[in-house]
Amino acid sequence: MAQEHQINTYDDRNFFQKLFKMKGKAEKQKEREASPKYKAIDTSKMHLVIKAKSKNAEQLEKAQKVARIMSLVVVYAFLIFMSLIVLFPFYWMIITSLKSTTEIRSLHQTFFPTNVLWSNYITVFNSFDFGTYVGNTLVVGILSTLGTLITTIFAAFAFARLNFRGKDTLFAILLATMMIPGEMMVITNYITVSRLPWYEFGVGKVEGWLTYKDSVFGAMIIPFWIAVFYIYLLRQNFKQIPNELYLAAKVDGKSDWQYLWKVMVPLAMPTLISIFILKLMGAWNSYVWPNLVTTADPSWRLVTNALRSSFTSSNGDPQYGIQMAATILVTVPLLLLFIFFRKYIMHGVGRAGIKG
């Protein structure tokens, strides 16, 4: 009985506690309802407030959508404008190649030729020795590109993996030389090459086992075997290769030479392909230096130099229409090269800029 009485007492106590809590909540609710703030709220218009908020949210979403569209319009308008600036010279070159000399020199220029002259291209094929000049350009371009790849690989490996005194200082000095315009190096390169034992400017004779023509081609190739920008590009790529691979190669007993050619070069192949294409395009477009060292014999010139000195009238005036036609024919191989290998160029250059 005592135990049953104790349980009933406990239940009664819980009942009264719950009752007091409910009474307290009811009193607090009455106080809130009696407050001025609560009376100011008109619950009958609550749905109007919710509707207004949803309408404001819709307006905000529409405004954000309009802002995004306007930003895209501005961006694409800017890109189209810049594209027109870049492409307009090429368009002008194309229409000029289809015009006569009289129309080209006219004060009233048109955006389309009055009389389309496809004969300019026929004249180029009949009178321009493409085989000789393109062959010279390919020889110089391929040999200078291969030499650049070899020196770039060795230099990038040294700056990325080897530890020697003054490495960072030497690399900073090399980067500083990129600030010097290439035209400023023409005079120093000319003096250096002219003093080499296997080359004499203006003398068409055999120098040991090298002919003068060989010497001229050597002068166009060797000074450009060192390219600081490509060294920097490949060095950045080499630094991304995990150091654990180098340690694993050392554990396997591989030398630095084997590690370079069996691990680093294959991993950096996209960047090497980019360097090969960019260097070959640069050699194809070179003008100032080849024009300087091939004055003895015009048949040794590259295609850009030959285009500039060819196609003149009987009184010495340049035939711009025919020159533009020849320029287009020379530009097409570079354009196709870039179109087919643009993925490798973008990928190789992009990978080299990740790690500093």
Q: How is this fold's topology laid out?
A:
Elements (H helix, E strand, L loop, with lengths): L1 H33 L1 H5 L5 H51 L4 H4 L14 H9 L2 H32 L5 H10 L8 H10 L17 H10 L6 H12 L3 H9 L4 H12 L1 H17 L2 H6 L9 H7 L10 H32 L5
Can you tell me about this structure?
The protein is an all-alpha fold and 356 residues long. It contains 16 helices and no strands. Helix 13 runs antiparallel to helix 16. The protein is 73% helix and 0% strand. It folds into 2 domains: 1-41; 129-351, Orthogonal Bundle (MetI-like fold), CATH 1.10.3720. It has helices spanning 2-34, 36-40, 46-96, 101-104, 119-127, 130-161, 167-176, 185-194, 212-221, 228-239, 243-251, 256-267, 269-285, 288-293, 303-309, 320-351.
